[in-house]
Amino acid sequence: MSAVYSSVSSPKAVVAKAGTPPMRYLAMLASVLLLMLTGVVMVLSASTWTAVMQKGDAFSLFSRHALYVTIAVFALLASVGCDFRRWRRLAPYLLLASALSLVFVLLVGQTVNGSARTLNLGVQSFQPSELTKFALVVAVASFLDQRRYFLDRLDRVTVPIGACVAVICGLILLQPDLGTAAMIGFIAVGMMWAAGVPLKHLCLLVAPGVVIGLLAVLAAPYRRDRIVGLFFSTENVEGAGWQVTQGLVSLANGGIRGTGLGAGQAQWGWVPEAHTDLVFAVLGEQLGFVGAMAVLVLLGTIIFTGFRTAQVAPDVFGALLAAGISLWFLIQVLVNLFGVLKLLPITGVTLPFVSYGGTSLIINSLAAGLLLNIARQSR
Length: 379
What we know:
This protein has one domain. 69% of the residues lie in helices and 3% in strands. It has helices at 3-8, 23-46, 48-55, 60-80, 86-108, 128-146, 154-173, 178-195, 199-219, 221-231, 242-254, 279-311, 316-340, 358-377, and strands at residues 110-112, 115-120, 125-126. A three-stranded antiparallel β-sheet has the order 1-2-3, covered by helices on one side. A hairpin with a 4-residue loop joins strand 2 and strand 3. Helix 2 packs antiparallel against helix 14 (358-377), helix 8 packs antiparallel against helix 13 (316-340) and helix 12 runs parallel beside helix 14. The radius of gyration is 21 Å and the shape is globular. The two termini are 17 Å apart. Mean pLDDT is 84; it is low at 9-18.
């Protein structure tokens, strides 16, 4: 998408009149809000059994998620109302804060399922890696814009960004969280490609990243088990293949029209992490193929209009920012869906705006608001 620069500087572009936001802005806003509403309904349905077993209250997880959605809506509105250019000044501080929080979570983080990914702040937990995605997109967009005339220089662009991403991904790998580290690496490389960094320079970043990823998979027994569960799930249904097999069974059980809200079996303990990692399986079972496709259309609308916004953004920073956020959402959706569909190992990545999760939902909404602000000011 090096066309980002040509489209931004096109003299034939017409700026939208004030008070008349483009249709892609309205479509994106409606899609985000509808997905949040869908998430509220699905979390209520999918979390009942887990809430009873963990808290003894069927509505404990739902009430917390409803609070997250409320905060996310305010974050969305605040971000929409703030000019996206103001975030450029905050980029270094956001990146520094995210890096320090990643170090802090390694020291005093709360360990869940063998990974120290969250900080316990008393009344609320916080996941630094989610903030890191947002900070990295803003920082890389600002950096690439500032050095847009030196994109073919290894020492001016590729090496600095590669070093920064390597440090961040290294800290996340120590949690350990290979899925998020890989996502952040792909987002950074995608933004560099969109800006016009030569492909041979990007290969210098991708090659060692792939090698490190493979070594990380081979070094950890639980990651090897996930690979085994992915390719040999039918041979170990009650072991490594249990989660992915039950997710596929739930999707098949939904058929075309679904079993109806609250009428499926996935939420009653048959699918582990039904309200977070595999919420799409619950959605497909209860709403069927029709409901699942409707959610995919809404997600696709956000991503497609985001990339379109990148092409017609008012300046280069806005174009790179829109491209980075859209790529972030695209990768996150694909990783989650491919995990449910047995095309990738399940990594714990949430489905944007639908899955249960406080930090992820709020940060995604903040990013969506930033994307909406760019769309509202675009040509």
